[in-house]
Amino acid sequence: MIEVLVYSALLAFIMTGVMGAVYMIVQGFNRSSAAVTADDEANFILRKLNWAMSCVKIVTVPAAGATSSTLQIWRDNILPAENPLWFDLNSATSTIRIKRGAGVFTDLNSLRVASLSFQRTPSGQPDKIKASFSIDGRQFETSKYLRKCI
After folding, report:
1. How many domains would you assign to the chain?
2. Which secondary structure element, helix H or strand E, spans residue 26, and what is its range?
3. Of 94, 95, 112, 144, which has fewest CB within 10 angstroms of its CB?
4. 47-75 pLDDT, tens per residue?
């Protein structure tokens, strides 16, 4: 009888350790999965912004030397009906959106974006836009010198 109690206590002790280890593994997987998802969405947004800021004809917003939460760009090598391209932060869903021409805004991500800003260099300097945003407390940014297509 004492042996059964000792073995039961030993089994309970081992099972507690195993369950704790499994819980830690699952938590680690969830954290790394969330980080990978945030990186994937941020990389998609960065690629979309870099595409939009290539072959630029006109930048309407932000003005030279200003910072804005909205970006409006006219591109050279897209259909005229798709101009201008708009990027902004949807305050209702906390997502970054894009709009082509007179179309409707389309969300680019599903995770919460805490901030979005576009900063343009002052007049007299090479024209550059720095875009930055924050997803899950991590800051992402890209800078692009604006050049016309040849």
Report:
1. 1
2. helix 2-52
3. 112
4. 999 988 888 888 889 988 899 999 999 98
